[in-house]
Design goal:
This protein has 13 helices and 16 strands. The protein has two domains: 51-166 and 305-383 and 413-417, Response regulator (Rossmann fold), CATH 3.40.50; 169-297, Rossmann fold (3-Layer(aba) Sandwich). With 432 residues, it is of the alpha/beta class. α3 (100-112) packs parallel to α4 (125-138) and α8 packs parallel to α9 (280-286). The model is unreliable at 1-9 and 39-43 (pLDDT under 50). The strands form four sheets. The chain has a six-stranded mixed beta sheet. Strands 8-7-9-10 form a four-stranded parallel beta sheet, with helices on both faces. Strands 11-15-16 form a three-stranded antiparallel beta sheet, with helices on one face. The longest helix has 37 residues, at 12-48. It is globular, with a radius of gyration of 29 Å. The chain is 43% helix and 18% strand.
Length: 432
């Protein structure tokens, strides 16, 4: 007698239910397989998608040569990382930094259209000051590699902007003792470019000079438009006033033109020239006969203070570009190194995480003491150099003797050399 509670495998209803069960399982397995393949493909595509980093440096105008050297330096940092970070290729997108308005437009393009995860660059302080609010609004990391105006890490500082180069406060303190030369050089003439950096440099040096040496005599003060090519009228005034020091808030092709015209007027040996910055390419373009002066320096490719890491950078740069790196090359190399290190160490491209990392990290081996971005103003704290143009220049690129490293107190004196938090006008908000 058959058990009525058990259905025969031949029962039509049972066969139908079994078919549905098997078919359903196959469908579930198939869907799961397709999802796995799809997710795997998405992960592979995501891994292959480049990490894009924007660069805003001049391709034309007063600082175009420095822009090229800076971009070249940034590519060495990419090479150091093997062209990849987080297993994804690194893509640099270089836009022209030409003036504040266009630099803002191009920064927005980099962020909104190119979808960059960070931006670096900026030689003109006026351009950088215009770019900084965009970094804050869009919450995108900006490493300002080459500007010097005090406001950048002063009253206009923000949480998403960091600076590699030296503020004018530091450059003038670096070079003033050598220019004063124990009271031998009391008569000073100031000539500065009429924009943020040049005007700030003039104010910073004048204030420090009068504070440290009340017996200094300022015999002239002038401003020249950025991009000036003919300095003859200014040089005639300088010759008439017979200063011992001419302090220039000039750089790029402006400084080159000034030095050449000064030499042509036979004034090179009669006065000490200085500026709060010196791009090596300014001197290279002026040539050995016209080059003169004592300057503060962020870095120099030939220096007794260069570390193994800096020497390796020089070697790679010379091999790749067949010339010597100038100071902007080092600055943009370090800026790009900062960004890529932060991405690698955090495992993220989120700017808030990158900011927090940079506020708390010390970079070892790039100079002869650890260097770091100060957490409360984002200024890179690093030693500086006093450089003097050689009397006899016998090689194509080696124009300078490095006289000293500042501050004299070494690592312990670094923080105060850049100014204390109590002295600063920088007041950053919370990271949002």
């Amino acid at each position: 007698m058959k058990d009525r509670g058990h259905k025969s495998s031949q029962d039509p209803q049972h066969r139908f239910c079994r078919w549905i069960s098997l078919a359903g399982g196959a469908i579930v397995i198939g869907v799961a397989f397709q999802m796995f393949v799809g997710l795997s493909g998405w992960a592979a595509a995501s891994a292959a998608e480049p990490i894009k980093i924007g660069i805003l440096l001049p391709k034309s105008g007063t600082y175009s040569v420095q822009g090229m050297y800076g971009y070249n330096g940034a590519t060495i940092a990419v090479d150091d990382f093997g062209g990849k970070v987080l297993g994804r290729p690194i893509q640099l997108i270089w836009e022209d930094e030409s003036n504040p308005q266009q630099s803002v437009q191009r920064m927005r393009k980099l962020i909104e259209e190119n979808k960059v995860v960070a931006v670096q660059g900026g030689i003109s302080s006026g351009d950088v000051l215009a770019m900084m609010p965009i970094a804050q609004q869009e919450k995108v990391l900006l490493i300002a590699s080459d500007p010097n105006a005090t406001e950048i890490t002063g009253k206009d500082c923000n949480r998403y902007t960091f600076r590699v180069d030296l503020p004018n406060r530091v450059t003038v303190r670096t070079v003033l003792p050598a220019l004063w030369d124990h009271g031998k050089n009391k008569r000073w003439y100031f000539l500065s470019a009429s924009y943020a950096w040049g005007i700030d440099a003039y104010k910073q040096m004048k204030a420090l000079l009068q504070k440290e040496h009340p017996d200094a005599v300022i015999v002239g003060e002038d401003q020249a438009p950025l991009g000036t090519t003919d300095f003859s009228s200014y040089l005639l005034k300088i010759r008439a006033e017979n200063p011992q020091v001419v302090f220039l808030g000039e750089g790029g092709t402006d400084l080159t033109a000034f030095l050449k015209q000064m030499h042509n007027m036979g004034m090179t040996q009669n006065v000490v020239v200085s500026s709060p910055i010196l791009n090596d390419s300014d001197l290279w373009a002026a040539g050995p006969q016209s080059s003169t002066g004592i300057y503060p320096k962020l870095w120099n490719y030939v220096s007794p203070y260069n570390t193994a890491s800096s020497k390796e950078f020089v070697k790679k740069y010379e091999a790749k570009f067949n010339n010597a790196p100038e100071v902007n090359s080092w600055g943009d190399w370090f800026a790009m190194t900062s960004i890529l290190t932060a991405i690698r160490e955090t495992g993220s491209t989120d700017s808030a995480k990158l900011v927090e990392f940079l506020e708390n990290h010390k970079f070892v081996g790039y100079k002869d003491m650890p260097i770091y971005y100060r957490s409360w103003d984002h200024q890179l704290i690093q030693p500086t150099y006093v450089a003097q143009v050689k009397k006899d220049i016998t090689t194509k690129y080696d124009y300078l003797n490095i006289l000293a490293q500042e501050p004299a107190g070494g690592e312990k004196a670094l923080n105060d050399f850049y100014g204390t938090q109590q002295e600063s006008e920088c007041h950053m908000g919370a990271l949002k």
